[in-house]
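User: We ran a pulldown and think these components assemble together. Before we commit to crystallization trials, I'd like a predicted model of the whole complex to look at. Sequences follow.
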Amino acid sequence: MPDAPTDDAKDAKTDGERRNRPFWSGLLTFGLVSIPVDLYPATRAGGAPLRLLDEDGTPLQRRYYCPEEDVDVPSEQLVRGYELAEGKYIVVTDEELESVDPKKSREIDLRLFVERDGIDPLFYEHGYFLAPGEDSGKAYRLLASVMEKSKRAGIATFVMRDQEYLVAILAEGGLLRAETLRFHDEVRSPKSVGLPKTKEPSAALSKKFEHAIAELSTERLPTAELTDEHADRIKELAEKKSKHGQHVTRTNAKTKNVTESEGADVIDLMEALKRSLNGHGGGAHPTKRATHGKAARTTKKAAAHAHATNAKKTSHARHTR
Amino acid sequence: MWKGVLRVGKLSVPTTLHAAVEDVAVHFHLLHDEDEVRVRQRLVNPATNEARSDGEVHKGYELKPGTFVLLTDDELAKLEPEASRDIQLHSFVPRGAVGPAWYDRPYYLAPDGEAESYFALVKALRDGERVGIAHWVMRKKQYHGAVTAHGDHLVVVTLRTIDEVLKAPKVEPMSRAADARELKMAEQLVEALSGEFDPAEYSDGHRERVRALIEAKSHGKKPKAVKAPRRPPQKSLSDALAASLKNVNKERKSA
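Assistant: Here's a predicted model for the assembly, 576 residues in total across the polymer chains.
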């Protein structure tokens, strides 16, 4: 994640509670039209993260301690400090940080629409789904449909969880997505990296590259290739060892597990979509009931499927965020 | 700086990788409130409250909640991807075939030594409007990436894996029966608000305000709070669209 301020301790504290609700709720606006929306992450942690354990298999905890007195420091005794000079800090409180931000920044105000394919891939940072909030189905669908047809993205800045984000709102398959973008001062220029000036390659060499590219060209991104083989090997070895009863330990200690909660993220999004787009609310025409009923069923099935797949994929995963 | 050789069929392009993202965040440290000493982290067994050093810990993969399979460092070392300098481009897709959801971290590629093949690849990607999909191993980690022409140079953006990207739920497309007048107005409004995207026009106001707060506090000053304006209540969709269009047109005339 980008931007200021960063401190893991405070983040970890609210981790569990924010899982089951939207990441952010607010208004998506353009002109005088405002659409209540809920934002859900479109990515999740992958890989095969390992836990650090004690001799007897107890999962170890990372704790803060003060090296001065050699005592553990509980989170309520932690404060944020900005280092002015070595060992000299300016303490900044939560209240002060809140006061610098108009906390009511509950709006993604689209004042500019741009060609969506014209956005430099260097800027894309993190993806979210936007689900329509209460009774906003009609306006949501209208905007999604117009944006998709015109291949445009809406640009805005907004504040989410104490950070300001530049964001591109895109429409894809009737669904709105929010893609956070890096701010321009976070992206280096070719000049600052010291890339050399271009030289015209020979026609013969250019032709060779053209041919080599043509040989390997496909129309779609081969997503099935985008696997984490290293993680798969770790999971395989763990499965194999467990089947042979080797080196397996159990603990009753509460461990964080992503299986249920991440599944819940997906379900919440499905529910929100079903409610606003396919079911009641959102100005659905009574004559269109049949279509909406069908859509609702499809969504439910998709939700159940997504949950199953999700649970399967993450049942071995462990908390990482 | 990491050296890697792009492989396209039988052709090769020697390059070096350079991070394209800069860390400009305001970093805070966590301090102990009593003495304002920076805290450190240690590993503790929560059952016994005993601290453990890095050398004493074991690694385990959590098969299901509370069940760990211990994996030794030797076993894990054998699973590490094999070190290599090759950045293998295995497919080329049209620009736009890579959705933004996949993009993770961007790097600039610079020619390493001989530069003609580098610029030949830039030209071929640019003229063909193609993006190369690659995989490679860098510092014991496996990566996927999209290699694109970026102006006169090459950029590779690492891609998320298929496990990390959530599938978008299916949504019924908007029915034809949608209010034609509203659709027309929405189209006009989006059109009227359309323009060029210049990232330099946007800055992180929050980050700047946090810096100003620190600056003020370091001089013993107390900063003031800011209030956000409130939005007027919502009209009907039709009315809101019509009023927005009117506003936009008015602004245009006066501009």
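Chain A touches chain B through 196 residues (CB under 8 Å). That may be worth checking against your pulldown data before setting up trials.

User: Thanks, that helps.
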